[in-house]
Amino acid sequence: MQIPYTVQLRSDTGLFNAKLGVWLFLASEVMLFGALFSSYVLLRVGADHWPHGWEELNIPLATLNTVVLISSSVTMVMSWASLKMSNFKKYKLYMGLTILCALIFLVVKAFEYGHKFEIGHYPSYNTFLAIYFTLTGLHGLHVIGGIVLNTYLWGPGSYMWKTEPERFTNRVEVAGLYWHFVDLVWIFLFPVLYLL
Amino acid sequence: MSEAHAEDIKKHVRTYIMVFVVLLALTIVTVAVSTLHLSTVAAVSVALIIAVIKGSLVASYFMHLISEKKLIYAVLVLTVVFFVGLMFLPVGAFSDKVALP
Fold first, then answer.
1. ipTM surpassing 0.85, yes or no?
2. Which of residues 68-87 of B touch A (CB under 8 A)?
3. Which of A17, A156, B28, B87 has its CA 20 to 30 A from that of A41?
4. Domain of A147?
5. Structurally, how many domains does chain B consist of?
């Protein structure tokens, strides 16, 4: 049996199924990160002393990472737009750039973590670092998940373009929804952890 | 794909580039403001306002929420309600006098 409504829109929802599915997943993701943000507020307000982000963390590196992640969001949406314009070569280019940006983000993050570990600042060092590692660690896992997904769509998954181009375009669109969400989370993590 | 449709997408692409530039500018602004070391309330307000603007731009244009189906808006309204509830949990914790010494 074929999976229904991968291309055709359902008459009751007005959507193809994957889009609604991914949005519901993202709603649950909002609650996951929301719970941790809420914990952050509770920990911070309840603490006698809370270090400023700029005392503990590397702002230039985090700013660079913010730019890298925003760029990857643009290349992601451009990869989808390229498919919409039936330009598969450009799709490959933009999707490749998206994956590259995600890898750069992880490398920079690894440098940040490495430096912290070198000076003995593990999550157990203080409450600030505990929530910092929890939030950025969970976000980092999401970045890794995105890389796996996007690499599949860039490589073996892209054969679908030849057989079912519209279905493939929809796949790239919903993968984009997830990726933009990962960018969106970082847009909040960056000021909250680094700048305040 | 029809000519008109491809033309539409080209318009979208211009919007994406503009949003990208605004996002970069706002990133610079938020970092610049943080170097002023404002009072906590002012700093938190400015940082969150800028983050909300950036987040809205990403959601509206990159995630196409600006023209999406009603059902998705309904899902998101419900999510926002519960998210706001989550954010008020710490307030609840602090108004609970029993927990204070």
1. yes
2. 69-72, 75-76, 78-79, 82-83, 86-87
3. B28
4. 17-47+58-195
5. 2
